[in-house]
Amino acid sequence: MSEKIEFQTEVAKLLDIVINSLYSEKYIFLRELISNASDACDKLKYWSLMNQNAAQNTGAFKIVITPDEKENTLTISDNGIGMSKDDLICHIGTIAKSGTADFVKNVKDNGSVVDLIGQFGVGFYSAFMVAKKVEIITKKAGEEQAYKWMSDGLEGFEIEPTTKETCGTDIKLFLKDDAKDFVDTVYLRHIIRTYSDHVEYPIVLNLGKAGEETVNTASALWTRNKGEITEDQYKEFYHHISKNMDDPWLTLHFKAEGSIEYNALLYIPTTAPYDLFQPDRRQSLKLYVNKVFVSDKVEGLMPSYLRFVKGVIDSSDLPLNISREMLQQNALLSKIRQGTVSRILKELKKRVGNYEDYLKFWNAFGVAFKEGIYEDFSNKEEVASLSLFASTYDDVKLTTLDEYISRAKENQKDIYYITGDDVATLRHNPQLEAFKEKGLEVLLLVDPIDEFWTQVLGSYKTFAVKHISAADIDLKIERQDKKANEGELKKLVDFMAELFKNEVSKVEISEKLTKSPAALNVENGQMSIHLERLMRNHQQQTAFASSRILELNPYHPLIIKLSEMISEPDQKNEIADVSRLILDQAKIAEGEAVSDAGFFAEKLSEYILKGM
Ligand code: ADP
Ligand code: MG
User: How many Å apart are CA 418 and CA 443, to the nearest integer?
Assistant: First the structure.
């Protein structure tokens, strides 16, 4: 008896997008279905080895493609793991992964379904680009009952028990009128070779009376010799393994020999995945043991800061029946990790000098990569040396720490940095004025992560890494220009200290400012204003609030003028208003909000008008 089940809302939405849009790259459905068939063979291979079940077919895995010109159907068959009734309901028809909602949103924003289908693990549904009806007949390994699943991709699907001799899955597509090309064997051969050549199982084209023909190379790409692999083959494999449609920025294929032997074929994509910074984002390298796929969820195979690296690691030295928990602590695994990480860093080192090229990598992955400076203790200096930073040296071009050091002043002992929300605002931060005046370069750091690695790194080569507020150097600027009168200035300082006693801990005269009348600073050793803001945004602030210092520039005409007015009793209100504007201005320069926006706006207009 057949059972009718409705599609989950997300699936229905997704199918609606897939069915109703016009794509020229319809052929990708075949790549997706072949990839699922190949995954199913991987799973059965592993399952059989683990279960030692002699009855299961473990030998001749293959994927058979059968076009039928008369019926106008195309069938993709595999003798892999198959699906149970639950599998059919859970994996085809519902989408457990949270990614689907993101997918639908991403398609709406960017429009390219083809690029996104594989990435979001919704490849099966691409069948509906070419099929008006899909029929699945499948039997799961180890089970007696086979099932038939049918759907037109509109409201839902039907499931009924059926018979099937061996385990595996046949997916029959009833082709739409505009998809008749897909029964043409010449065309099929072409798209299979172009997009699925890397599949390690034979992909066989069933030519009916004319027999069967294996179309692909059918051997695991990573076990072949480098010299035998073309760039296109590497690229195609990358598309398969990463589910990305971009070109790899880096392809790294090597065989490690020594205490542990393994093959690695690794890629760094050109574009970042949509979920690079989602907390549940994990590394996704595929681990094989002697060509048997074990898992793509092995924690600890790649450190988190390299979570964007895609590819395969295959070692015969690992035990096949290793459980996931054991994998985490496995010493061999940690050797593999150390080995691959150092190879990746070595490759990055070769390319860091080529700015235009490296910038592509950096723009896509730099923020994640920098996490390595505090995450990877043994490589922190190496990761730092491969990182790029905005700096006061150049308005556009980013710098490495080594370039920074090469430009350091003769007696300079520190690498200086300032942190904030964005580079453009930071460039105008009054705290930088003295550094500019003295020709000292300052790194402009704007990623939340920067607050943390700077603490952990401590120093780079012989240079201490220091926030500018912690710089213990003489930043006094020698000047001839007019300065406010000492006595009056003292009175102004006291006046402001009293006025702002709830907002700043101190008001001080500073010899470090040039253009700005005032600036905010923190006591040496305290948390930077930016970090405090980050903590506050995460509701963690109260325990840490650092005390602010309001610094006044005694050479600034505004401060000189206020000092002159301070002794006149009837000017107190005006001085208070202008003082408040000065504090607000200093806050804005720090990326802070002013305390009373209404007051600020009103007074600003009032004074602008006076000046006009
Ligand atoms: P993904 O392959 O990224 O998981 P798909 O939409 O391509 O996403 O497939 C969804 C799921 O359906 C697969 O994860 C798998 O569990 C199941 N599936 C699809 N095709 C097959 C098949 N030929 N054999 C066994 N299971 C399959
Ligand atoms: Mg798939």
Answer: 6
